[in-house]
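Quick one, T. Sequence first:
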Amino acid sequence: MAVDRDHVLRSAAALLTRKSTATMDEVAKAAGISRATLHRQFAGRDALVRALEALGIAECETALAAARTDEGPAADAVRRLVAGIEPHAPLLAFLYTENQLFEGEEQNEGWAAIDERIAALFRRGQASGEFRIDLTPAWLTEALYGLLASAAWAVAEGRVAPKDFTHMIVELLLGGVRRPEGPARRKES
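Structure tokens:
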């Protein structure tokens, strides 16, 4: 019997997003296969996490393409991007906590490409005058990732309604990133 690798990955993602410490036995059970079958697909947890990373990168790339980040106002593109990532946010939140994916020289180049595409969206918003220029595009990209992960965890734990996911992220992020009307004012300490 052939094992559907995509089904195994999506089952693992669904479990690990709820329980990041799940064992390989638990992953196999969630996928409806034996541990031996799981081991034939993925030599261990690291191989499974790396396969989930590839899935997460592919999902981000698809969301970026669908968001048409180079069209229309940058704020609208941010809304489309967050809405497109929403179905994949739990997986991305899990990956966000997997330090081995972001350390050392084995970091997947796919993340750097995604970072650059999102940063380009923020640069575009800065160039058009929509977004403030005192926050770097790299920082805004990291802030977006943090908000996506936090919202995914809050929804998973039932602390916020799933229907509020996109609204919460977009309003908080854009509320802080929008260029103020008139001269910017800073309070003196």
